[in-house]
Write a structure and sequence with these properties.
The chain is mainly α. Helix content is 81%, strand content 0%. The two termini are 41 Å apart.
């Protein structure tokens, strides 16, 4: 591999000294960038899906959804969690980063090989011959991600989220253009496959060139030192948790696809995707910011608690009201975005929207486990989570896709509080700290949704679907803000948010 020329600092892409010197500013800036970029990503995601939903059939979407569980399992095993270990590790050098790169390459070769072998098995299981080619094509994209995992991890480690956001937006544009073009040419489900593949390839190539780090030359039979063994243990426990929980989280789609076919799975998959869409648009980008900033403060419990409270607030404050609004206006949203052929997904969408609303409290515990290195304890929780979810979804499967959705949602709701309590038992963050940032957006969202639903009888009928949704969204937004402000501590919480943005603005000017 490429060696650094004489005089070039091989550690420049790894060190975090400058970052630690002004961590609060970088954390706020990174969070601001990720949140500010969401409208662009949202527009790209909604726009491309709205177009493709009208050009393709539920069966086409169902075929890709049949491969999705396998992709999720593969994603949980690739790199064996070493990408997160790179971000979380307080001290890291070039040799350690290189050793992790080569070790992960061996692991990924085995995982991708198994994915290729699973292609005909998947086609046999679902009785859909098309799945063989789809799986093999998607394996190419997974391989590209594996080759550049360390580059993306180092960008996250140094909190270069402005560059990562630019890469992500570019990949979304490229994927959408290729997918719409392929659908226009009549390629059917291959349009969706190309969308995923082009997005992955774009991200990988861009990350390789943007991050100047290159691994040191591979040395055969090198022994792992204590630090590497510790990072490998950290990553292995994290991967074990991911794999275990994804069994329970992906079983719903496997059962719907097996018992009801690609068409029913298409409806279910689209309902699930859009139910989680508001939450994922905040959670996924802020995950990297949170882990990077939380990890840098793990040595100081009080500072860690302060950063956690500040970091957790945006995900609840933004995702909960959107999910509550989507629940009330599910039919109009599906009709506007996807068209008449997708109305069958409305009851599934409403039911599944409850899962991320409640389960958002559960999902953010991952930030806490990962940032303080408690992945072994996280794995223990996975041993509780997975059997419960398997049982809930399996029982619901007796009643078809809706029963599966009901089982999935009930399982998530039952597990949320125990999951939070289990995590916080060994965390510097207390239960009071956690729920102090949850209760206000939760109550404000639910109350605003109830008022909006009750007011449907008095609101004037608006024939234009877009204008009708905008009016209702405005009413809901004003209700949410008003309720937020009048609840105890609302004014103080708002002032803190504004002060953080003001501080970031003043530091940028300096």
């Amino acid at each position: 591999m490429t060696q650094y020329p004489s005089g070039v600092d091989s550690e420049q892409h790894i060190r975090t000294d400058a970052l630690n010197a002004d961590l609060k500013k970088r954390s706020l800036k990174s969070g601001l960038i990720t949140v500010a970029s969401q409208p662009i990503k949202l527009a790209l995601g909604i726009g491309s899906t709205a177009v493709l939903a009208r050009m393709l059939t539920p069966f086409d979407f169902g075929l890709l959804a049949m491969v999705a569980p396998l992709l999720a399992f593969v994603d949980s095993l690739t790199n064996l969690g070493l990408e997160t270990a790179t971000v979380q590790r307080e001290k890291l050098d070039h040799q350690q980063a290189s050793a992790m790169f080569w070790l992960s390459l061996k692991i990924n070769a085995v995982v991708i090989g198994l994915m290729v072998l699973m292609a005909p098995v998947l086609a046999w299981f679902y009785k859909q011959a098309e799945l063989t080619g789809i799986t093999l094509m998607l394996a190419v994209g997974v391989l590209s991600l594996c080759l550049t995992f360390q580059h993306k991890s180092l960008l996250k480690r140094q909190m270069r989220f402005e560059m990562m956001t630019a890469i992500e937006v570019a990949s979304l544009v490229a994927g959408a253009v290729f997918a719409i073009g392929a659908a226009w040419l009549g390629l059917g489900y291959w349009a969706l496959v190309l969308q995923v593949l082009v997005m992955q390839l774009t991200q990988s190539v861009a990350s390789w060139f943007v991050c100047g780090w290159r691994p040191a030359k591979y040395v055969k039979n090198t022994k792992l030192d204590a630090n590497l063994r510790e990072m490998l243990s950290y990553g292995a426990h994290l991967s074990g948790f991911r794999f275990l929980t994804r069994i329970g989280m992906q079983l719903d789609r496997i059962l719907v696809g097996y018992f009801s076919g690609a068409g029913a799975l298409g409806f279910y998959h689209v309902a699930y995707t859009w139910a989680y869409f508001p939450f994922e648009q905040i959670y996924n980008p802020l995950f990297d910011v949170a882990v990077s900033s939380f990890s840098r403060t793990q040595h100081d419990p009080d500072l860690y608690r302060a950063y956690c409270r500040r970091g957790l607030m945006p995900i609840f404050a933004f995702s909960m009201p959107v999910l509550a609004f989507c629940f009330v206006e599910a039919r109009e949203i599906i009709l506007l975005l996807l068209g008449n052929q997708w109305l069958e997904a409305v009851p599934l969408f409403q039911l599944l929207a409850i899962a991320p609303f409640v389960g958002s409290m559960y999902r953010v515990t991952k930030w806490l486990y990962v940032s303080i290195g408690h992945t072994q304890r996280q794995l223990r929780w996975g041993l509780i989570h997975t059997p419960v979810m398997i049982l809930a979804v399996a029982v619901g499967a007796k009643w078809g896709a809706y029963g599966v959705a009901m089982g999935y949602t009930v399982g998530i709701c039952l597990l949320t509080y125990p999951a939070v309590a289990f995590c916080l038992k060994t965390s510097p963050l207390s239960m009071g700290d956690f729920f102090s940032v949850v209760w206000r957006p939760a109550f404000a969202s639910v109350t605003a949704a109830v008022i909006l639903s009750a007011s449907q009888f008095v609101l004037p009928d608006i024939n234009n679907a877009v204008l009708s949704l905008l009016v209702k969204m405005t009413i809901f937004g004003l209700l949410y803000i008003l309720l937020w402000m009048i609840f105890p501590g609302g004014m103080q919480g708002t002032k803190e948010v504004l002060q953080n943005f003001q501080e970031l603005r003043s530091k940028r000017k300096n």
